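hey so i finally got around to running the thing on that chain from the lab meeting. sorry it took forever, my laptop kept dying and i had to restart like 3 times. anyway pasting the input first so we r on the same page abt which one it is
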Amino acid sequence: MTHLHSLRWRLMVALLLVFALGSGVSAIFSYGEAYGTLKELSKRTLEGQARELVAGLRFRPDGGSGRLPITTRRSNSSRNMPLPRKV
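ok and heres what got predicted. didnt touch it at all, straight out
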């Protein structure tokens, strides 16, 4: 039996291949998660929220502003809710 065909050698090569594939997939997944997090953070900046608010405002013919969209009203009112009291 030659050294290249031994069970120990084949198992070592198989384990190294699985390790290399796992490391590569882990690196790609980590990069994707980090990029997605940065993208979400940039969308939720104060400037982005201001743009979203201005885009959602409705103006009346007399120049006044109308009501905010329902989703904006809900998110703003839920922020101002009082905290529950401890008994």
